[in-house]
Amino acid sequence: MCTMNWLVGSFAFLAVALGAAGSGVGDDFTRFRGADATGVAEDHPGLPATWDKETNVAWVVDIPGQGWGSPIVIGDRVFVSSVVADEANTPPQGGLYLGEGVRDPAKGVHHWMVCCFDLGSGKELWKREAHAGRPVVPRHPKSSYAAETPATDGERLYVLFGDLGLYCYGLDGELLWSRMIDPKKTNMDYGAAASPVVHAGQVFVVYDNKEESWIASFDTRTGDQLWRTPRDEVMSWATPFVWENELRTEIVVPGQRVNRSYSLDGKELWSFEGDMSILVIPSPFAAHGFCYLSSGYVGDAHRPTFAIRPGASGRIDTEDGFANSEFIEWYQPRASPYNTTQIVYGDYLYTVYDQGFMTCHDAKTGEEVYGKKRFSPKGSFTSSPWAYDGKVFCLSEQGLTYVVQAGPEFEILQTNPLDELCIATPSVVEGKLLIRTLTKVYCISEQHGQD
What we know:
This protein has 451 residues and is mostly beta strands. It has a single domain (57-450), classed as 7 Propeller (Methylamine Dehydrogenase, Chain H). The chain is built from 1 helix and 33 strands. The protein has one helix at 446-450; strands at 57-62, 72-74, 77-85, 110-118, 124-133, 151-152, 156-161, 165-170, 175-180, 197-199, 202-207, 214-219, 225-230, 241-244, 249-253, 259-262, 268-272, 285-287, 290-294, 305-308, 314-315, 328-332, 343-345, 348-353, 357-362, 368-374, 386-388, 391-395, 400-405, 412-417, 427-429, 432-436, 440-444. The strands form 8 sheets. It has a 5-stranded mixed sheet with strand order 14-15-16-17-21, with no helix packed on it. Strands 1-33-32-31 form a 4-stranded antiparallel sheet. A 4-stranded antiparallel sheet has the order 2-3-4-5, with no helix packed on it. The longest helix has 5 residues, at 446-450. Residues 1-20 form the signal peptide.
């Protein structure tokens, strides 16, 4: 299976809690896993620990078609992308596919859509069709032609449909510019998934494929391509990470062949091979001054997690491997998930495995705190975890959220059912939790129950 970071993408959150790593950026949810890409939200009295399809539901809206990007939020507006097909195609299913893909493009005319809703009420404010036509590339059987999470700088909305194009909208729905993407053959015909990221007037897009991989920057105002750097990669789907560390700002991009960092003008800063898993999906993020990289296809013996120190240049691995590298703070050879992205909350790094387990490591040293603990009832996972109020939340593909007590002991406090396929990573903004299922977006908030 693949591309669900995806392919969820290419798939939540704001500031830090419990002394965790990072600081929030405003109140908007601006990209996959939130403004600082950590998955950790600021504590808020409206954020619930309990919900179902009725309890603590402020509103729920139907989303036509299919899409696995997270909702993003700018002010009082929620933005969601989706693709609607005129003909029935193979429906997405949970679980592992182990190499099985959809070898032909989906049938019928598709409509690539962008929708805007009111954060307070769920009322639809506008809907736009970015493109209509027949898909020209296949996709992963679990994924969607709208796998990526949009991004924003607070002034404009940037929607990437990975094998199709990048579209820029004003917050009122006006199409400001678009840049088409020349589709390429991807590994196992899984399609694209990495979500866009925005920083300092640039939109960064990564497109790894089997023909001509690249990372590129586009001007946020005009859509002009500012630079494009070739990548010697063929199959990774991780969303890039703009790492604003104590020494500089850089763009970190994992790869199956080589992990790399780029300057803001597209020049390579550092790299190392890492002996990464054959399918690289989890997205990088920063905590405690380190940048965390991981990959963990279930069929691979080596499923590494790395904590990288800032300031590197050139090759940072050594002839002796990773243990003696000046810029690799720690390394664990078998501590990475397949599709989900890990989360650091407080001093702990939590890993949610696709087949229904969780582990915990010391985020500063990499030492194991507890080994694999099974979720009960059992579930499978693509959505990445999030955290607030001393709890780590893990949403299964079956639509069941496990509420796990943060800390050195594994304890499931409760479970919250929505009873529908869930692949997208939820989003958190102030006192509201937005969960996207196969057909809906739920706005969950305890404030609703207290009115």
